[in-house]
Amino acid sequence: MLKTIMILSMCLAASSLSLVARAQDTEGAYTEGPVVQVTYIHVEYGKLAEYVDWLNSTWKPTLEAMRKAGLVIDYKVFRGSPKTLDQPNIFIMITFKNMAALDRRTEFEAVANKVIGSTEVQNNARVARTDYRKHLGSELIRELILK
C-alpha cells in the first residue's frame, strides 16, 4: 500500500512538473493584448436596412462617445452569410484595452444615458428591436501579440 502511494505521488509530481514546463515554454512567447467582445446577431430577412438605421442613429453615436471617454478602443460591424437561418448574419465587435476596462460599468451606463436616454428608454428600444433581430450570444476574445 505504501509503495502504491509513493508511486502515485511521484507520478503526480512528474505530471505537475510537465505542466509548469509547458507554461514556461509559452511564457514570453506572447503578450496579452486588447479584449474584443463579439456579439452574434441574426437580423430577419428584409429588415437589415431598419437595423442599420438603428446602428447609425443610436449605436454608433453611443460607441463614439464611449471611445471619446476612453472606455473602448474601437468598434466594428460585420455582415456574414449564414449557412442556416439560426446562425448570425451580423457580428458586432467592440475592442477594450484589457479585461479591467470591462469593470467600468457605471461609466458605460452614464455615457449611454447621456447619448440614448434613461435605462427605461434603452430597455424599451431593446424590446422593440426583438421584432426584427435576435441576439444569439456574445463572447470575449483576447488578442495574443506574438513576439
Provide tags for this entry.
147 residues; alpha+beta; Alpha-Beta Plaits; 4 strands
Summarize the structure.
With 147 residues, this protein is of the alpha+beta class. It contains four helices and four strands.
List the helices and strands and how they pair.
Elements: H1 2-26, E1 30-43, H2 48-68, E2 74-79, E3 90-96, H3 105-115, H4 119-129, E4 133-146
Antiparallel strand pairs: 1-3, 1-4, 2-3
Helix pairs in contact: 2-3
Can you tell me about this structure?
This protein has a single domain (30-146), classed as Alpha-Beta Plaits (2-Layer Sandwich). A four-stranded antiparallel beta sheet has the order 2-3-1-4, covered by helices on one side. The chain is an alpha+beta fold and 147 residues long. The chain has helices at residues 2-26, 48-68, 105-115, 119-129, and strands at 30-43, 74-79, 90-96, 133-146.
Sequence of secondary-structure elements: HEHEEHHE
Reading off the top of the CATH hierarchy, the class is best stated as Alpha Beta
Q: What is the molecular shape?
A: globular
Fraction in beta strands: 25-35%
How many domains is the backbone divided into? 1
Assign the structural class, choosing from mainly alpha, mainly beta, alpha/beta, alpha+beta, or little secondary structure.
Answer: alpha+beta
- Low-confidence parts: none
